[in-house]
C-alpha cells in the first residue's frame, strides 16, 4: 500500500509517506475517511504538511486501486510509549471542502440592494434537469470562484423535470444542499470516486444516481459464505435498528401562511406481525405547499418503516471481494451461526474499510428483517 500527498488544487503529487499504520473507510453518500501514521525519523521534515486543506491524501494499492482519498486535515505529531516520534495524517473526502463553500454564484457581492432587500440575481435556480445533474451544478458553481479549481471530472448532464432554487442570503452550504437533494422524495445518491494515474496525479470523479435508478452500485454481486468448512467472512455480528418502524405516519406542512397541511399514511403490516401501533409525526416539511408532495413523503415513510433494519458487520477476505465498493449488493450464505438462522441473505453494502495489511476488509451491510 502507498500513501501519497498531493496539491489540493492541482492533484499533483508532492511526496510519498512512509507508512507505519494506515486505515481507510468509505460509505454511501458520505466522505471517505483516511488516516496514515508515519515515522518522524525519515530524514526529512514533515512540518510543511501541517496545513489543513492545502494538501490532499490518498491511500492506494500498488496496482493503483485507490482505497480512499480526501483533503488533509490537521496532522498530529507526538511520541508513542516506545519513545518513537510519529505523525498522524488524517483526511476526509472532497465533500469536506464543499462543507465550507456556500450556494453562491460568482460574482455574488453585494447580496442586498441599497434598501436592504435581497438581490434576486444572486440566487441560484436550477431547472429542467435530473436531481443528479442538479447536484453537479451546485458543485460546479462553487468551483467557478477564483482560486477554487479542483482536479475533478464531471459526468454528462441529464435533462429532466426537476427544479429548485436557493436564496443567496440564506448562506446554504453546498454539501448540505446536495444532501438535502438526496433526501427529497425521489432523491438520488452521489459518490466522489478518487483515482490516481500512473504519474501519481489525484482526480475526483462525481457519480450520481439517475431519477430512474437513484441507487449507486456496481455490476458486481458478491457471494460470501459465513460458517461451514471454507468461510469467506469472520466475526459476523448483528445490530437491529427498530427506530424507523412505523404503522402510521403523519406529516405536516404549509405553515408559512398560517394554514396547516396534513398528510397521513398507514399500514397494518406491523400490527399483523404482532408489533403494537407505532406513530411517527414529522413537522420538518413546513415549507411544502403541495398536498401530493406531502402525501408522497408520508407514503415513503410508511413503506420504509414496515420492518426493522438489520446491520451486519464482518470481515471478508480481500481476495474474495475484488472490486468491492459501498453500494454493491451481496449474498451472505449463513451456516451454523449462533444467532442468524441458516439461509441465503441478500444485503446491500453500506460501508467498506481496511488497513495497510490488506488481507481482510471490514464490511457493513444492511437489510430488512424478515418476519
Please provide a written account of the structure:
- The chain is mainly beta and 371 residues long.
- The chain has helices spanning 95-98, 131-142, 174-182, 269-272, 291-304; strands at 2-7, 13-17, 21-27, 33-39, 55-60, 66-72, 76-79, 85-92, 124-129, 152-153, 159-166, 190-196, 202-208, 221-226, 233-241, 248-253, 261-266, 279-282, 309-317, 329-334, 343-355, 360-368.
- Strands 1, 2, 3, 4, 5, 6, 7, 8, 14, 15, 19, 20, 21 and 22 form a 14-stranded mixed beta sheet that branches. Strands 10-13-12 form a 3-stranded mixed beta sheet. A 3-stranded mixed beta sheet has the order 17-16-18, with helices on one face.
- A hairpin with a 5-residue loop joins strand 7 and strand 8.
- Helix 2 (131-142) runs antiparallel to helix 3.
- It is flat, with a radius of gyration of 24 Å.
- The mean pLDDT is 91.
Amino acid at each position: 500500500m502507498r500513501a501519497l500527498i498531493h496539491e489540493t488544487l492541482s492533484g499533483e503529487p508532492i511526496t510519498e509517506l512512509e507508512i507505519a499504520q494506515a486505515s481507510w473507510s468509505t460509505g454511501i453518500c458520505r466522505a471517505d475517511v483516511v488516516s496514515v501514521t508515519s515515522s518522524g525519523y525519515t530524514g526529512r521534515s514533515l512540518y510543511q504538511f501541517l496545513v489543513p486543506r492545502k494538501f490532499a491524501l490518498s491511500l492506494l494499492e500498488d496496482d493503483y486501486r485507490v482505497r480512499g482519498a480526501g483533503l488533509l486535515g490537521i496532522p498530529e505529531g507526538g511520541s508513542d510509549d516506545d519513545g518513537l516520534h510519529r505523525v498522524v495524517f488524517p483526511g476526509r473526502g472532497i465533500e469536506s471542502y464543499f462543507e465550507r463553500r456556500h450556494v453562491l454564484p460568482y460574482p455574488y457581492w453585494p447580496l442586498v440592494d441599497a434598501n436592504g432587500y435581497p438581490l434576486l440575481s444572486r440566487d441560484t435556480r436550477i431547472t429542467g434537469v435530473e436531481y443528479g445533474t442538479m447536484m453537479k451544478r451546485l458543485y460546479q458553481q462553487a468551483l467557478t470562484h477564483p482560486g477554487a479549481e479542483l482536479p475533478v471530472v464531471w459526468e454528462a448532464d441529464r435533462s429532466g423535470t426537476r427544479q429548485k432554487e436557493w436564496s443567496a442570503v440564506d448562506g446554504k452550504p453546498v454539501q448540505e444542499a446536495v444532501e438535502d437533494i438526496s433526501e427529497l422524495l425521489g432523491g438520488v445518491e452521489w459518490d466522489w470516486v478518487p483515482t490516481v494515474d500512473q504519474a501519481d496525479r489525484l482526480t475526483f470523479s462525481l457519480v450520481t444516481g439517475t431519477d430512474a435508478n437513484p441507487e449507486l452500485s456496481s455490476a458486481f454481486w458478491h457471494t460470501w459464505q459465513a460458517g461451514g468448512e471454507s468461510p469467506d467472512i469472520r466475526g459476523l455480528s448483528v445490530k437491529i435498528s427498530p427506530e424507523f418502524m412505523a404503522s402510521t405516519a403523519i406529516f405536516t406542512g404549509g405553515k408559512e401562511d398560517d394554514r396547516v397541511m396534513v398528510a397521513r399514511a398507514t399500514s397494518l403490516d406491523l400490527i399483523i406481525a404482532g408489533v403494537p401501533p407505532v406513530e411517527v409525526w414529522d413537522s420538518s416539511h413546513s415549507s411544502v405547499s403541495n398536498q401530493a408532495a406531502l402525501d408522497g413523503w408520508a407514503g415513503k415513510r410508511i413503506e420504509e418503516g414496515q420492518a426493522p433494519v438489520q446491520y451486519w458487520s464482518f470481515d471478508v477476505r480481500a481476495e474474495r471481494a475484488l472490486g468491492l465498493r459501498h453500494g454493491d449488493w451481496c449474498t451472505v450464505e449463513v451456516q451454523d451461526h449462533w444467532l442468524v438462522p441458516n439461509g441465503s441473505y441478500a444485503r446491500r453494502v453500506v460501508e467498506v474499510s481496511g488497513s495497510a495489511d490488506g488481507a481482510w476488509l471490514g464490511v457493513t451491510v444492511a437489510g430488512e428483517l424478515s418476519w
